[in-house]
Amino acid sequence: MHVEPHALRLGREEPDAERDVRLLTELGRTRHDKRHRHLGYPLNQDFDYRALSELLDTPWYSIGFADEPDRLGLGADAFEREILAFFAEILKAPPGEVRGFLPTGSTEGNQWGCLLGRQALPRAPLYFSRAAHFGIRRVAELLRMEPVEVATLDDGRMDLDDLEHACSLRRGRGAVVVNTAGTTMLGAVDDIVGLRSAARPAGDVFVHTDAALSGLILPFVDEDVPFAFDAGADSVTISAHKMIGLPMPCAIALARSEHIPQGHDVEYVGISDSIVKCSRDAYTPLLLWYALRRLGTPGLTRRAHHCLGTAAYAVDRLKDGPGKAWRHPHSITVVLASIDASLAHHWHMAVENGVSHIVTAPHVTRADIDRFAESLRAETSRHTTDPAPSNPAR
Ligand SMILES: *Cc1c(COP(=O)(O)O)cnc(C)c1O
């Protein structure tokens, strides 16, 4: 839906709440109708929280960890504690030994994990692969850690020889290493066990796992794919809006309690300041709790397998054509040869370094894949059959 900027201008017109509600409602409807063209980014759009709209005239604010006192009295701590306990179990944390919170997204979760790493190993550089999420480099800058970009193998996993080499050049300072479980473009899962031993020349090693997307897939596949606390992660983050789906971004961040510094006690709000920010959103956690109550482990398992099935279907459908589709075994990221810019725009797909991808998030159907395959075929044949531009009149 195209809205003229003047229709949104603030501060001039007579207020007309009904008109504005109509405008916003229409905007929401158009978004909703367009979701079958959203193939490129890992965001589930298949959800409905309208049953909880009654909550929208009440403030929902948390301050501090959910296991600290809620002096403000506007939080949702009991719900957050359940969510964190559920994820601690999925991520195979030793019972009672991890703590965390619900940040606004995995980027914030990554920042918190890397901060804990830096606090544990103050002189350590931040090692991350070339395929790590773009936000990681920024985290290194914000935390003033030396950024060390590690090469990747052709399939997108971190090159462990290169990591070892980089760590040998910086011996004895310790290493904070970002382990990506499901890289952004290729859906590769780094080898967390290999990565820890490759980093040994650095001295002590802190591993933060960025499992933004695959953190809600890998625990439910038949094979044991190590990436979480049982495999040696010190902190882990997962985005909730990706596989679960929410109207706004939200993530889960957990870390081994031993790495979480006490912080300074803040008398004003009766908590410690170790998660850095003050007010946190306590509304989204309620939606997340509601979604998890409905799904449970069986629902999440079914959902992961459903998405993997759609991904397998997409590879089958697109592997022989111009798309040359492939994917990692437990990934819902279907990698394609770079596609035409207008197609990428229409289907909301990323193009980077000559590759593109479809992410078969829960809302993506096989019929969507068929429609995309058809438009890719049409676009390609248009390019190959177009005669060279010529002017018959000359
Ligand atoms: C999506 C993604 C992120 C960013 O997550 P947000 O929740 O959008 O901040 C980070 N890392 C990976 C691997 C991702 O897929």
Topology (SSEs and partners):
Layout: H1 17-33, E1 61-63, H2 77-90, E2 98-101, H3 106-120, E3 126-129, H4 135-142, E4 147-150, H5 160-168, E5 175-180, H6 192-198, E6 205-210, E7 235-239, H7 240-243, E8 251-256, E9 265-266, E10 271-272, E11 279-281, H8 283-318, E12 333-337, H9 341-346, E13 351-352, E14 355-359, H10 366-385
Parallel strand pairs: 3-4, 3-5, 5-6, 6-7
Antiparallel strand pairs: 1-11, 2-8, 7-8, 9-10, 12-14, 13-14
Shape: globular
Radius of gyration, taken over Cα atoms and rounded to an integer in Å: 23 Å
Detail the poorly predicted runs: 388-394
Number of strands: 14
Distance between the first and last residues' Cα = 44 Å
Bound molecules: pyridoxal-5'-phosphate
Helix content: 25-40%
Q: Pairing-aware structural class of the strands and helices?
A: alpha/beta
In DSSP terms (H or I, runs of 4 or more residues), the helix count works out at 10
Largest sheet: 7 strands, mixed
- Would you list the SSEs in sequence order as H and E? HEHEHEHEHEHEEHEEEEHEHEEH
Strand content: 5-15%
Please state how the strands of the largest beta sheet are arranged side by side: 2-8-7-6-5-3-4
What does the average pLDDT come to? Answer: 92
